[in-house]
Amino acid sequence: MTPTPHPQGPHAPLQEALRHAPRQPLPPGPHEHPRARRRQGPGLSLRRGLRQGLALWAAALLSGLAVAAPITLKDDRGHTVTLPDTPRRIVSLLPSLTETVCELGDCAKVVGVDRFSNYPARVQSLPKLGGLDDTSIESLVALKPDVVLLGVSARVIDRLEGLGLKVVALEPKSMTDVQRVLGKVGQILGRDDDARRLWNRIDGHIAQSAATLPPGARGLSVYYEVDAGPYGAGTVSFIGEILARLGARNIIPAELGPFPKLNPEFIVRADPQVIMVGQRNAPGLPQRPGWQSIRAVKNQRLCVWVPAESDVLVRPGPRMSEAAALMARCLRDAAAGPIAWPTAAFVAPPGGMR
Fold this sequence. Notes:
alpha/beta, Rossmann fold, 3 domains, 5-stranded mixed beta sheet, 12 helices, 11 strands, ABC_Transporter_SBP
């Protein structure tokens, strides 16, 4: 960023410094005659003022240059991206990245988001640019962003870069990824220390949630369904890692990846004690073939998330500590007894409540 010219000309800072420079004569040296000091004093004072003014001007110039230093980082594609300066206009096409920018204090710089970014409330009034597969290129370009933040799987990356836009692709799937992405976004925003503090706070709150669980809520086998398909949250996903820190046993092994599509028979055979599922996918779940024999269904240990809770749980970002608290609550409830069916749309197994 080029330093802003002084309204009174390029030498105004120096002149201003000189105007306020001290004019008192220096005390006489041990061999200096007072009259000689008086004759030489004004010249010395002027030279000293010049030196001070130049020092102030140089410091201001160097400060401006420091702010304008380019930012270079490697994104999750392995591409090196260089930004000429800290961005002032940001487009975010991934909800977790939108939340991260806002949590780090730069929500006012976000000028456009994807259709799913709905938190915090102030982003709801921003232009919606579509999703990963149908981003409105024309609308995005019209916003003149300094940088576009999006997921690695977004189809528009090449087109945006072809138009000369700066694109940073970041897509966290594990807790280690989340910590790294927080650091990358902090680097982009010039808020490295804030990013480190945010991660420490998230990590500490997850530990606090784990500490609240009674022994009976630990060791329960859990199936977390992230979407119909069914797709589950595996052991190596950020959801699976939070569950592990809460003492739960994930039925999906690490070798299947973070969010695998599962054969429904696999879930029936795994026979989880607890099922966590979003409200959208809950209706009819007990009627899936063979699922009435699953312990979580028979004993009514299903935690059904309302949409706002699902948003918290599936976004690997600043609200992961809230996600841990929600999952801990589910495990406590499951350990305590049957969980009431949450909505009329949810169809209970034959016989209703047990």
